[in-house]
Write a structure and sequence with these properties.
heterodimer, A: 276 residues, alpha/beta, Rossmann fold, 9-stranded mixed sheet, two-stranded antiparallel ribbon, 7 helices, 13 strands, B: 431 residues, D-Amino Acid Oxidase, Chain A, domain 2, 3 domains, 37% helix, globular
Amino acid sequence: MLHIVACIKQVPDTKIIKMNPKTNTMDRSSAPAILNPYDAHAVEEAVRLKQRYGGTVSVLTMGPPPAVKAIRKCIEIGADEGYMITDRAFAGADTLATSYALTKALEKIAREKPIDLIICGKMTIDGDTGQVGPGIARRLDMPPLTSVKKVVEINKEQGYAIVHRKLEDGYEVIQSTLPCLFSVEKEINEVPYSPLPNMLRAARYQPVIWSVNDLEDVDRSLLGLKGSPTIVAKVWPPEKPKGGEKLQGSAREQVNRLMEILAEKKELFRAKEGRA
Amino acid sequence: MAEKFDAIVVGAGPAGTACAYTLAKAGVSVLLLERGEYPGSKNVMGGVLYRKMMEDIIPGFYKEAPVERPIVEQRFMMLDEQSALTFSYKGLEWAEEPYNNFTVLRAKFDQWFADKAVQQGALLVNETVVLECIVENGKVVGVRTDRPDGEVFADVVVLADGVNSLLAKSLGFHKEFRPDEVALAVMEVLKLDRRIIEDRFNLEGDQGCTIEIFGDSTKGILGTAWLYTNKDSLNIGVGAMLSGLIKHKLKPHALLDYVKNHPMIRPYIQGSEQQEYLAHLIPEGGYRSMPKIVGNGVLVVGDAAQLVNAIHREGSNMAMTSGVLAAEAILEAKEAGDYSEKTLDTYRKKLLDSFVGQDLKKYQDATHHFERSPQYFERYISMMNRAASQMFTVDGSSKWEKQKKIWRDLGTAREKWKMARDLMQAWRVMK
């Protein structure tokens, strides 16, 4: 019986979020909070592995109290239990401090029930770093397997996992010892429409909520803003792409102009050839 | 094994939520199903919420609910192409507790209201569409949703699924509505600095203003446009009978663009930024279009029961009252252990005895009369504008002469006679 923990985060929906034009930061009130889309795939994969091998799926998040909603979403997908750490002491954390706090919570969960596998989304859509997953693995001294796009086998008795990792031009097959940590690509699965009994369970579900005092052996100087060495020196919006050129004139003129442009840019094609 | 509740309410709008709240508060196990991402995400209204009926459910709700502005002024604008005749009432008794009504943004308000029902113990499930009622031995015993393992059962099902209630239709409670029974409304939320709003609408602090706009705003079709003030946005919209839009081959969004660019309206909204675009059907058939609203194990409330008073732009308040009355009938039925149509019929009786039924009866002929007689909106409003212009333009001619001109403008003796008759008729359907 596997115990799989998915680490998830509630994020603002960056597809519709507005930027504050003065500070160049996200106006979080302008977009609804959703479950980080990559994390939905992480939970779904955990649920599929549970269905394949038997076991339990727990989810863990750090966030403000409204993040309970994200945990409920995971229950809808099929997770069994949800844990949330919430405390002012965690506020303002960068990826280093976040992975530290989550690790402390994972240690507490593992004391109740040893963890075989941790699954994270590839990255969050508000931070885009993909650092928290590997950060947790390093702190727990387990192998991090990033960009996982397929789980071939989990063998708890013999203590190994085999996965496909996505590469730029293909994939690699990797075997790791258990316990380990996956961070998964979106293509690993499709999150189906949840069955009604899951929806009813989620609507009633109350997660386990811990404050910093509930965690053990915590070095408070490593939490929140204090524990975050990341300094955002400058934030600026990406340059707006310039509009393309619309070719005009007769068909012959347009073709000639197109040939000129292609000749100007021939370097681009050479690079491609070289790689092939 | 599918779950069973005491009651299932389909639709978390004002009617459904009021019903679920009342049931949950009385200790009944109730499941509230909503198709939208959250309650309010798919709900549309012009923007005025009446205080009284909401306060009957949650006393003092406005102290914590996300209301925008209490309305202190209601303006009515009779619009012509280049002019408007406006009258208004502004009263500071509406600027203090308990207030008369408020502007609200439904996406925020409905969510808050549904949260209150959840706090009372209702179970809310979003993003779930009810496909049909499960009927056994002539009695509704549950619903089938679009989710896997999507059946769920209850002693009674309340249909609060809105204007196009497919569920009530599939039970044979009503036929497809005719185009002269529904209005199509389109609306935009325009972002505007609150200071500018307060200056433009002559408001102090949180006070709000509503403007109802008749005549040229719907190109003479039976309907109305509106402009309401929120905290830092405006609701501007236009609604007209579907039959009129079809007859005049008018697209509703084109009508809204026309209203937004009208010289009498444009200055109010200048410099604002479009934030949301919404469109919805409004049931305006009134009393005569009311479907069957009670069956074995099933009740219909709110828009699904066509409970809208088009003349007084009331709907959400009627919806709430119907939701509460349905809940009370269910509580009685639970007591008696009998959810038959006969027992639940107390809901229909109480509804017809309440202000909802009384007002619907009072105006049962109004919409139909104005629908059949386009001259009110097409001719008479322009006429009033011309008369006002004539009377107030100082050009050296005597007031006697002016009155004569206005009289001539009313047309031939025959047209005057028709107009007098129309006025009588209008009085008769409205009185």
